[in-house]
Design goal:
Layout lengths: L2 H20 L10 H7 L5 H4 L22 E3 L4 E3 L1 H4 L2 E4 L7 E6 L5 E5 L7 E6 L5 E4 L4 E5 L7 E4 L1
Antiparallel strand pairs: 1-2, 3-4, 4-5, 5-6, 6-7, 7-8, 8-9
Length: 157
Amino acid sequence: MSHKRLMALAAVAALLAGCGATAPKAASSTGSGAEAQANSPAVAKADLAPAAPLAGSGRDPSDCLPSAGQTWSKLRKACVQVFDVADIRLTDPDNPALAVYVLFSPDKKVAEMFSASFPDGSVMMAATRGGNSYFANMGRVLLLKDSQSKEGWRIAK
């Protein structure tokens, strides 16, 4: 055999031997497909790990999604995003960096005020005569019509 032919044959043999080392093993007739995948170098360990719960997928006791900005409204008896559905948005008198949101019932006889300073997140308020103010027994909070404020309302404690 010539020297060129011997070198070409050796190169082909080396390539074939190298390809066989990285080829995935076929599933045996007795093993499961998962076992064959686990033994395959092409499958990363992260692919076989159980999926972790997605961040922000937790629900609160009212079945609302706090991570989506939802909170339970006693007035509407549903999960709401108060920043989207509020009838009034006011600055929190206890913390000017926060907002207070108010929802009114259709007949304006009841209001629900949402604030970070309330233990349950919101308080129910009853309208006084004339509908110019709303009063909550819890914490003695008043919502008063105020023609001097740009929102037309103010909070008094």
